[in-house]
Amino acid sequence: MSPWIIIVILGACAIAYALIMPKKNKVQEPGHHLVQEMESTLEHYMAEIENDNDALIQRVAEMKGEATAADQRMQSQLQELQRRLDQLEESKTTETDIPSNIIPLHSASGLQAQALVDSVRADSAQQVSEAEQQAAEQESKPARESIKDRYAELFNLYAEGKSVDAIAKQTGIQRGEVQLILQLAEREES
Description:
Blueprint: H1 3-97, H2 108-140, H3 147-150, H4 152-159, H5 164-171, H6 175-189
Helix pairs in contact: 1-2, 4-5, 5-6
């Protein structure tokens, strides 16, 4: 074969390939466009998640700061209360050392605290005595009322000769419970 025929055949193949190639790209473009849209959507979604995470981290940091500040406030209040308690205990011990006819002006708060303690003790003693009185009253009452007193309607119906099913239906108590109550009443009487 001559070289010019080989060149013509190669040229024809190149032209055919060139014509086929653009058609392939046109067919692939819609799929390629869909992939690009999905990639951009995922990138947008990831950016939103990252922004949300940053906001969440910032909020957690703020809450941690608030908790730390609250803890510091509580610690300072606790220290102040401890200091005041120490002062009161100190003034209480100095009061016991001072004769009772001399009352210094700075111990007035200690006296108020002592009066408060005395009133709390008196109130608790009164509550204890009231509780003892109530216990004594309850002991003087009968220990418990009889089963016939508690279920008077049930025993009235039973005395009228009603059946267990009729009593259960009329009182709204289950049949087995009615039978149990009747049996307990029999035991109580014997």
